[in-house]
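Justification of resources, computational component.

The compute hours requested in this renewal are based largely on the per-chain cost of generating structure records like the one below. Each record pairs the submitted sequence with a full structure-token output. That output is archived, and it is also reused by downstream analysis tasks.
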Amino acid sequence: MSQQESSVGSNKWIQVASDEMRQIRKRWGLLSFRQLAACLHIDRRTLSKLDCRHPDGTLTLETLDRIYATLLYLSSFHFPREEVDEEQHRLAHSRIRIVMCSEISPEVVEQVGRIIS
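The structure output for this chain reads:
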């Protein structure tokens, strides 16, 4: 087993996160990680860890939080005004799905749910 494969196994959430990022890229009309990296001003190599074909479990939840924070902020510039709230809700629910797959205490998950609702 390669180091990358074992790191994916240790971060069970990475598969969910990679699928969520694929859906986000599609909604945002960004066909490649290069385009997404340019939009978010985040290193392409960091974002490519969320590639569905080769997810890399070395990505940390803190980095993922930074990516989602940037997406939330930029959504008001990227989408028309009438679509911003819907996209921000989608991003929040996407992040919650990832949290639910990570090994975080139930108390933290409950707090996150209260914050975004």
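The CA atoms of residues 68 and 93 lie 11 Å apart. The chain is about 75% helix and 0% strand.
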